[in-house]
């Protein structure tokens, strides 16, 4: 007779209980193997055991949180029952999910963080981290077919960049491309993953013992990559001697996401194509992405006319964020503007609408979450690099775009001059603008009483209709802003000392007052 599962109530073929359990184990084996490979259970356990961590935080993004219990079970089995390692699952990060959530890990006293999913590989401040990129599916034969046909029509040297979730397949794609184009002398460079673990005490650009995932060299001349070294978004590659990055065609393997936007903006002078592994399409038109540069330049012009600036803290873990906050405060102060520091987690239009006194916001975060541009925001949100362009007098945009704020910490190219400058032309106001004088933004304005006393005088601004006229830029504080937007009620006539004479009102009913004539109604 067939056996019936009492829990499911379904009928199965006639098998003994031991045979049925063996069949179930064989059926679940591929799923368990896929889970162990995709989440790199063995390498994660090796990382934990080699460094003797006892409290480990597992950070999952929202789309991978459903696998957290299975990952914990597999990781616990791999660590062994004798190791007393505490595993804690973290979800709903304070800021972007691509960064290591050191704030959440500190709440449980974790020794390290295991980060799963998409990551920006930004260096941490206090805790070491191990990143599991995952293994996104990609058809290598279809990818090689698309790329080889396109490379045959393009004679430029090529640099292959990719999303970190495709790092597991890059070596196979490289070998297949070499076999598909054996007679070509195409200069082809594949980027390497910088590292898979981050130690805040060491240089994150160095190998951490786990080794680089491959090597960075050209296909036709191995070991000849002795030129410029480039790095972006966790990838690193070497250009040949005498070459510039603008001389190369950049190929991106991956989706159109924040990592790809980072590539387009940083290397805006390069020709860029993208291979979409999900749709198996080679996208050669990325003009939509390059339009972002025009939008960012417009936001820089709006920031130049700002009086009050809000500094949005978008990370509490990326190394160097405190230094950048102080640097932005000094930059804003020297530009004669008011600065307010705001920490609110993930910014959204509703949160920023609570600060209408801020004309512009500077968002300090990792490179892949730095661009916040939506029509719902009442005030523009710019990056630290754009702030240095806007608030540094005499600075001009040369086409170089910097997304990593850590590259600006030691930069000495953009400096604020403390000497009086000539009036500048405002494209938005259509006239010349004289910025607020530096000495008026000293410590004396910190007194709230003085700010309120001078609010009425500073709130009034006279302007000529002539577009070439000089517009006086006024720097306001938060107190002055609220005074100008407050309702004061009915204004009294200060010059009139005599009281108004009283008047006798009307008497009677509303249907007919006494002073109204009684006229007969006509039908």
Automatic annotation (TrEMBL):
Residue ranges with Basic and acidic residues bias: 512-523
Annotated transmembrane regions: none
Pathways per UniProt: Protein modification; peptidyl-diphthamide biosynthesis
MF GO annotations: 2-(3-amino-3-carboxypropyl)histidine synthase activity; iron-sulfur cluster binding; metal ion binding
Span list, region Disordered: 490-523
Cofactor(s) recorded in Swiss-Prot or TrEMBL: [4Fe-4S] cluster
Keywords: Iron, Iron-sulfur, Metal-binding
InterPro entries: DHP2, DPH1/DPH2, DPH1/DPH2_1, DPH1/DPH2_3
Role noted for this protein: Required for the first step of diphthamide biosynthesis, a post-translational modification of histidine which occurs in elongation factor 2. DPH1 and DPH2 transfer a 3-amino-3-carboxypropyl (ACP) group from S-adenosyl-L-methionine (SAM) to a histidine residue, the reaction is assisted by a reduction system comprising DPH3 and a NADH-dependent reductase. Facilitates the reduction of the catalytic iron-sulfur cluster found in the DPH1 subunit.
Family: Belongs to the DPH1/DPH2 family. DPH2 subfamily.
Protein name: 2-(3-amino-3-carboxypropyl)histidine synthase subunit 2
């Amino acid at each position: 007779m067939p056996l019936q599962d009492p829990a499911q109530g379904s009928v199965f073929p006639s098998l003994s209980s031991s045979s049925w359990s063996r069949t179930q184990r064989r059926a679940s084996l591929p799923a368990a193997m896929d889970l162990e490979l995709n989440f790199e259970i063995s390498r994660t356990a090796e990382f934990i055991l080699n460094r003797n961590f006892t409290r480990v935080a597992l950070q999952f993004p929202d789309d991978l949180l459903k696998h957290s219990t299975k990952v914990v079970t597999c990781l616990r089995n791999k660590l062994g029952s004798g190791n007393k390692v505490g595993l804690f699952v973290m979800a709903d990060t304070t800021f972007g999910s691509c960064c290591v959530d050191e704030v959440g890990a500190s709440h449980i006293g974790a020794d390290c963080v295991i980060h799963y999913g998409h990551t920006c590989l930004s260096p941490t401040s206090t805790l070491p981290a191990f990143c599991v990129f995952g293994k996104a599916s990609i058809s290598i034969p279809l990818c090689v077919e698309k790329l080889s046909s396109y490379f045959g029509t393009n004679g430029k040297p090529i640099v292959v960049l990719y999303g970190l979730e495709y790092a597991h397949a890059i070596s196979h794609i490289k070998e297949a491309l070499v076999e598909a184009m054996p007679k070509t002398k195409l200069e082809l460079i594949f980027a390497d993953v910088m590292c898979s673990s981050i130690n805040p005490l060491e240089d994150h650009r160095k190998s951490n013992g786990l080794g680089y995932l491959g090597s960075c060299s050209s296909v036709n001349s191995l070991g000849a990559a002795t030129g410029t070294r480039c790095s972006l978004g966790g990838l690193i590659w070497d250009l040949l001697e005498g070459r510039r990055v603008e001389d190369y065609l950049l190929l991106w393997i991956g989706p159109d996401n924040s990592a790809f936007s980072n590539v387009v903006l940083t290397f805006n002078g390069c020709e860029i194509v993208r291979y979409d592994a999900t749709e198996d399409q080679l996208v050669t038109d990325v003009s939509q992405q390059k339009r972002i540069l025009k939008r960012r330049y417009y936001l820089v012009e709006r920031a130049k006319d700002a009086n009050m600036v809000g500094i949005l803290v978008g990370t509490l873990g990326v190394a160097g964020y405190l230094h950048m906050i102080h640097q932005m405060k000094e930059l804003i102060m020297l530009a004669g503007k008011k600065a307010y520091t705001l920490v609110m987690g993930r910014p959204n239009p509703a949160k920023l609408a609570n600060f209408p006194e801020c004309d512009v916001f500077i968002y300090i975060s990792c490179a892949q979450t730095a661009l916040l541009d939506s029509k719902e925001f009442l005030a523009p949100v710019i990056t630290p690099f754009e702030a240095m362009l806007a608030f540094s007098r005499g600075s001009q945009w040369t086409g170089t775009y910097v997304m990593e704020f850590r590259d600006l910490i030691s930069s000495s190219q953009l400096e604020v001059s403390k000497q009086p400058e000539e009036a500048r032309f405002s494209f938005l106001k259509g006239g010349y603008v004289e910025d607020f004088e530096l000495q008026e933004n000293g410590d004396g304005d910190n007194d709230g009483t003085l700010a309120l006393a001078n609010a009425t005088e500073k709130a009034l601004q006279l302007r000529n209709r002539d577009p070439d006229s000089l517009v006086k830029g006024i720097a306001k504080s938060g107190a002055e802003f609220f005074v100008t937007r407050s309702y004061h009620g009915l204004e009294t006539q200060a010059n009139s000392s005599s009281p108004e004479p009283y008047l006798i009102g009307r008497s009677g009913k509303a249907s007919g007052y006494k002073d109204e004539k009684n006229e007969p109604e006509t039908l």
